[in-house]
Design goal:
This is Dynamin-related 5A. This protein is an alpha/beta fold. The chain has 22 helices and 9 strands.
């Protein structure tokens, strides 16, 4: 069982080393889950004497007012033989064999944290004592409860101490060691009052009665020690402290323990209780109880630790990796983030994520609808045909077929297709920009670095703009090609189709009659509709080739080229993570380290049992 207490000792020291000592924090705290014994008492209740009696050494600072101003985690380790020594958690490689020096270091370390004021601090001091005269035990000595602030103390000191003590003893894993002086009315005991508030049934409280030998003549503490005056689940334990004269004379603690045993054995009122009185008995009882509590809590601790490790790993993953320190690392990190963004963008286009289907909607609905709205039949109305045919003839009318008129009619009709073609290019451009913005918002790594997010967004949009311009040129060229060189086979069939007005050999005198012009308009309309149907298929191909395909292939190519020219400092400006997130990541990483170490420690103890 002894290694159970040693286990908790190691975990508590690790908690404090990483700043986890029960303060309010959004981070999960292992400290709160560890069983501990909190020593509570009012000023001058004999609290320090009880601790020194358990240890068998005179090592605690003494004086008037509030002497204990920081929690002191006192870890006792029983050794079989050898010289007694002490070690502080903040001075791990220094051994103290002079316990007067231990007392001085407690005072000095308190002042380092609080200054030379009389303020208090919640940051614990860790003190380990190794001795053949102690039991394996861990106690947390808390500042003495007080009712009035003295000179040099803030007005809030009374409430501050009360809050600190409560923060320890309110935890369900806390064992309360309530120190009360026998020469004062138990009803006024600060320790009993506060422990009753947090543990009304007395299930976690050990009552310790000090200064029994200083009670008025004719009175005794039997009713309290036998549990009649105030009942707790565990029996009360009486202690006889060293007198001030003994302290002044540096009376040996071993001798003081012997006197204590003799007092209870020889005093008629307490003779029947002597077997469960005294500081030695108190240490053994607390050690055994602490071991039992720790053993019962191990399954719960394992569950808490495993659950918290998963939560910490999840949050660290969400926060992303820390920023590299060298230029190469920063460049690699930026490239990897950009690749993640680029992958998400491609998933939108390929259908793994929503959005790419909007491009198909442009080709299947928007472009055909825009082409229908061109109304070529109105453009080829008789008066417009007459006007363009006549203008095309110039001063010299055509001899056979009005070829220039045909070309002019076809060109003016097909030019109007440029509008819907450009609109389709712009529509796809808008969708691609929308998908870029969507992909940026879905790239969690970019959320860490606002400057990089802006640069990537700007670079992507600039690329899309270049692709849009190239797509417009290519698409307009498709339209211009159609009216620059007509499909001859279509017109070669016309003379063979007399019934449809295809014979161009009419007399020069009837070439401008309504029937003739109507046939010309109908022929041009048929040709324009044929070309329009062809462009309806080829325009989407051009757009996909120039915009969608290129966006998938080279959206950030220019950005990568420019990135390779930047120095480490310039790369660092892109990785401008929020300092609060950086600090959060460091805190979480430390906490995860603590919990993994705790997991290993507890598992090793559990397996050994």
């Amino acid at each position: 069982m002894e290694n159970l207490i040693a286990l908790v000792n190691r975990l508590q020291r690790a908690c404090t080393a990483l700043g986890d000592h029960g303060d309010e924090s959004a981070l999960p705290t292992l400290w709160d889950a560890l069983p501990s014994i909190a020593v509570v008492g009012g000023q001058s209740s004999g609290k320090s004497s009880v601790l020194e009696s358990i240890v068998g050494k005179d090592f605690l600072p003494r004086g008037s007012g509030i002497v204990t101003r920081r929690p002191l985690v006192l870890q006792l380790h029983r050794i079989d033989e050898g010289r007694e020594y002490a070690e502080f958690g903040h001075l791990p490689r220094k051994r103290y064999t002079d316990f007067a020096a231990v007392r001085k270091e407690i005072s000095d370390e308190t002042d380092r944290e609080t200054g030379r004021s009389k303020a208090i601090s919640t940051v614990p001091i860790y003190l380990s004592i190794y001795s053949p005269n102690v039991v394996n035990l861990t106690l947390i000595d808390l500042p003495g409860l007080t009712k009035v602030a003295v000179e040099g103390q803030p007005d809030s000191i009374v409430q501050d101490i009360d809050n600190m003590v409560r923060s320890y003893i309110e935890k369900p894993n806390s064992i309360i060691l309530a120190i009360s002086p026998a020469n004062q009315d138990l009803a006024t005991s600060d320790a009993i009052k506060i422990s009753r508030e947090v543990d009304p049934k007395g299930e976690r409280t050990f009552g310790v009665l000090t200064k029994i030998d200083l009670m008025d003549k004719g009175t005794d503490a039997v009713d309290i020690l036998e549990g009649r005056a105030y009942k707790l689940q565990f029996p009360w334990i009486g202690i006889v402290n060293r007198s001030q004269q003994d302290i002044n004379k540096n009376v040996d603690m071993i001798a003081a323990r012997r006197r204590e045993r003799e007092y209870f054995a020889q005093t008629p009122e307490y003779k029947h209780l002597a077997h469960r009185m005294g500081s030695e008995h108190l240490g053994k009882v607390l050690s055994k109880h602490l071991e039992t509590v720790i053993k019962s809590r191990i399954p719960g601790l394992q569950s808490l630790i495993n659950k918290t490790i998963i939560e910490l790993e999840s949050e660290l993953s969400h926060l992303g990796k820390p920023i590299a320190t060298d230029a190469g690392g920063k460049l690699y990190m930026i490239m990897e983030i950009c690749r993640v963004f680029d992958g998400i963008f491609k998933e939108h286009l390929d259908g793994s994520r929503p959005g790419g289907d909007k491009i198909y909607n442009v080709f299947d609905n928007q472009l055909p609808a825009a082409l229908k709205r061109l109304q070529f039949d109105k453009h080829l109305a008789m008066e417009n045909v007459r006007k363009l045919i006549t203008e095309a003839d110039g001063y010299q009318p055509h001899l056979i077929a009005p070829e220039q008129g045909y070309r002019r009619l076809i060109e003016t009709a097909l030019i109007t297709i440029k509008g819907p073609a450009e609109a389709a290019v712009d529509a796809v451009h808008g969708i691609l920009k929308e998908l870029v913005n969507k992909s940026i918002s879905e790239t969690s790594e970019l959320k860490q670095y606002p400057s990089l997010r802006v640069e990537v967004g700007n670079a992507a949009v600039e690329s899309l703009d270049r692709m849009r311009d190239e797509s417009k040129r290519a698409t307009i060229q498709l339209v211009e090609m159609e009216y620059s060189y007509l499909t001859i086979d279509f017109f070669r069939k016309l003379p063979q189709d007399v019934e449809k007005g295809g014979n161009p050999t009419h007399s020069i005198f009837d070439r401008y009659n309504d029937s003739y012009l109507r046939r010309i308009g109908s022929t041009v309309l048929s040709y324009v509709n044929m070309v329009c149907g062809s462009l309806r298929n080829s325009i989407p191909k051009s757009i996909v080739y120039c915009q969608v395909r290129e966006a998938k292939r080279s959206l950030l190519d220019r950005f990568f080229t420019e990135l390779g020219k930047k120095e480490g400092r310039q790369l660092g400006t892109l990785l401008d993570e929020d300092p609060a997130i950086m600090q959060r990541r460091v805190s979480l990483a430390k906490r995860l380290e603590l919990y993994r170490a705790a997991q290993s420690e507890i598992d090793s103890v559990a397996w050994s049992k």
